[in-house]
Specification:
This is YtxH domain-containing protein. This protein is an all-alpha fold.
Length: about 110
């Protein structure tokens, strides 16, 4: 029953849309353009753009700092110590499994489902 309802609704929408035709489309298009050109709407759009730009810059800076710290800790951990139990091993739990600062260990077999 659900598929039948969908196709009936889609067919009805198509028929009604085709009857409205190009003229109705042009009316909708011009009304939406008037709303978009409204100075209050444009003011809101500019505020949102500024906020998004500001947040993106802050997040990019934070990500850059995090990546830099991670790279420095891994580079220092692999050349400065021979084991993986140092500070970089405890903050990066996957360091011993990826081979950074230690040897790679095989993963145990997974149970079959």
């Amino acid at each position: 029953m659900g598929k039948l309802s969908f196709f009936v609704g889609a067919g009805l929408g198509y028929v009604l849309g085709a009857r409205a035709g190009r003229q109705q489309f042009e009316k909708i298009k011009s009304a939406s353009q008037q709303v978009w050109d409204n100075p209050r709407v444009q003011s809101s759009v500019h505020k949102v753009e500024e906020k998004v730009s500001e947040v993106a810059k802050d997040k990019a800076s934070a990500v850059t700092d995090k990546v830099t710290d991670t790279v420095k800790s891994r580079m220092g951990g692999s050349s400065g110590s021979s084991g993986s139990s140092g500070s970089s091993g405890s903050s990066n739990g996957d360091a011993s499994q990826t081979g950074v600062g230690g040897s790679m260990r095989p993963t145990p077999p997974q149970p079959e489902l």
